[in-house]
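Lay summary. Proteins are chains of building blocks that fold into shapes, and those shapes determine what they do. In this project we predict the shape from the chain. Here is one chain we studied, written as its sequence of building blocks.
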Amino acid sequence: MLDTQYAPAERESVETCILQREKLNKKHIFKSVIDDMPYLFMVLNDCRQIIYTNKSVLDFLNCKLEDIQGKRPGEALGCIHADEYDGGCGTSLFCKNCGAVNAILSALQRMQKMEECRLTTVGGVSFDLRVWTYPLPIIDKKYVAFICNDISDEKRRRALERIFFHDVLNTAGGIQGAVGKLSEQTYHTPEIARCIMDMTSEMINEIKAQKDLAAAEANELLVNQEMVSTRDMIAHVVHLYRNHLVCKDRHIAISPDCREYTFYSDTVLLFRVLGNMLKNALEASKNGETVTISCCCRGNRILFEVHNPGYIQEDVQLQIFQRSFSTKGNGRGLGTYSMKMLSSRYLGGDVYFTSTPDQGTVFTASYPL
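And here is the predicted shape, written in a compact code that computers can read:
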């Protein structure tokens, strides 16, 4: 019996899957209809294994049907969680929140289902998929029609619209209000001017961050390595977010254990990562709570750590770093994803976290010294 944390792990042999495919081939309506479909179309057996696909799937994966025969969808698509257990796709703890697995299980119970699925491949590519499943009560067993469409561009557009229409608009409104006060008063002018400068810098930084993320996903982002001072970097990030709206009624502290280190990195991208870590921690904190940022050296790694007292629920923890996932509502979710992607793909590092009810949450960004 294979281990599983969620869906059944048992599967048929590849030879059995081939026999099932041959039975489907006798239903000539399949080939004539599904090969013309623009969406990815698979037929799965009752063990969730691929026994049939249309041409769109083979073109998308750049493979032959024999290469994926008997695999499950997550295994064929290269999901990072597909090999965590010997049982394969659908059996890890992370699979409980997978829209694709849940839609397939519903179809095996004779229920049609539409879900969205966030998938990251072992190559670091992230997809947002919309999945439809239908029970196929044909031949001698339960079968599932599995249809999916890549909606990454749609999700990205919604996220950018949310950021520009909400966050940037709020900042622009703050600038407008400050300019209004400036026109009415002849005193406190330096303070208002500084406020305008800070909010303008925040808006420009937000726009540049989205521009860099788009370039990073398209593999067009250039890395500019230079000497970085950890103390200066932390001071820069803390200064920006102490004046940010998200810091209202909250506090930022720099750990007294923070020491000065220098290492080579891209200052702009590193600032994006640390800024997102600090911003997320502030958003997750309650009024009056303190977010602490620290830096240390362990072995040959520089570690930046951001702590907040809050606890992330387990079902949320399983989805952190997935593209488009957010606890802040639809159209968000680029923060933790961009932290992970920029660090691993461009800065030679990694971002991870721990979260417990007693100790709170610590996000760590680790880079080579």
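What the prediction tells us: The longest strand covers residues 126-136.
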